[in-house]
Amino acid sequence: MVSFLCWRELLRGQEARSPAIVIPSYWSTDTDSVCSQMGQGLWRVARNQQLQHQGYSGQGYLTREHGRRFATNSISNTSHRKQAQGGIDIYHLLKTRKSKEQEGFINLEMLPPELSFTILSYLNATDLCLASCVWQDLANDELLWQGLCKSTWGHCSIYNKNPPLGFSFRRLYMQLDEGSLTFNANPEEGVNYFMSKGILDDSPREIAKFIFCTRTLNWKKLRLYLDERRDVLDDLVTLHNFRNQFLPNALREFFRHIHAPEERGEYLETLITKFSHRFCACNPDLMRELGLSPDAVYVLCYSLILLSIDLTSPHVKNKMSKREFIRNTRRAAQNISEDFVGHLYDNIYLIGHVAA
């Protein structure tokens, strides 16, 4: 009877917690059947509670766990695909790099000679010397070094002579480079070096041609040399062709080859005088049409130089106007037309200094 009461209290407690539990109405028959039925009922209650608990929490856990695993698998698959894709890219890169390393540089000796020489002709002297370590026969070809010599030093007396025995344009390039460096340090010694090597003849005309076709000479040293060698300067001026050129543009070209001195003096007057005569000699029809003479061109050149300084100098605040330039220029040269002088002003105003 004690056990029956205990079972009864237990079932009531379970009923209070779970409304789904139903206590059978035949539990009060005899003790053995009641105990047997209550045992089965208790087992069912416990089992139902366990299933309900698993259905509530376990199912949610399984659902969350399943979602987490699905998300993890998705991320893992995505990461795996990215890694696989990146691995493929790296593989191709490594494969391409390996193939390039195996192939190495293009062998110019396997190409047609015309194509190989065209490729090497884009190299300077330093790079061509380095290329000769790999392609000795191609990089040491005389045609390549002849092109380098003539592209840097356009005129040399030795170009028009029969080359002596054992002559090499590569050696000539080294001598020309050495002579240019010597000239930039001491012009007289540089010219003597060229003559001692047979590169230049001892002639003002040949020296003037060499200077006119060379761009590696220091313009300050060249100005000092031409100031001392007026015979070379005369021949150098005659090498310019100013035909059909506008006066300011012709003056710019002249001072691009023969640099003007920094200060006004006898050398500047000499340069302008020689330019004026050469410009008139190159444009006789224009001089007759405009009524200009070498003296008038001389005046115009000085006016252009002064106007260039006035318009480009930051120290001059009140710039000369076009009307002032026309008035001042026509006072010095009355035969010059007003329109022509106005065009001169426009050229300096738009393009800039004539002796910069």
Topology:
Blueprint: H1 2-17, H2 31-103, H3 113-120, H4 125-131, H5 136-139, H6 142-152, H7 169-185, H8 187-196, H9 204-212, H10 219-228, H11 230-238, H12 247-257, H13 266-282, H14 284-290, H15 294-312, H16 322-332, H17 338-351
Helix pairs in contact: 1-2, 6-7, 7-8, 9-11, 13-15, 15-17, 16-17
- Assembly form of the protein: single chain
Shape estimate: elongated
Helix content: over 70%
Query: What would CATH call the homologous superfamily of the domain at 240-356?
Result: Arf Nucleotide-binding Site Opener,domain 2
CATH fold type of the domain at 240-356: Arf Nucleotide-binding Site Opener, domain 2
- Give me the CATH architecture of the domain at 240-356, please: Orthogonal Bundle
Task: Report the end-to-end length measured between terminal Cα atoms.
Answer: 129 Å
The major sheet is characterized as:
none
Uncertain stretches: 1-7, 14-31, 55-88
Structure summarized in a few sentences:
This protein is an all-alpha fold.
Could you walk me through the main structural features you see in this protein, from its secondary elements to its overall organization?
The protein is mostly helical. Among the domains are: 2-99; 240-356, Arf Nucleotide-binding Site Opener,domain 2 (Arf Nucleotide-binding Site Opener, domain 2), CATH 1.10.1000.11. 71% of the residues lie in helices and 0% in strands. It is built from 17 helices and no strands. Helix 16 crosses helix 17 (338-351). The longest helix is centred in the first third of the chain and has 73 residues, at 31-103. The termini are far apart.
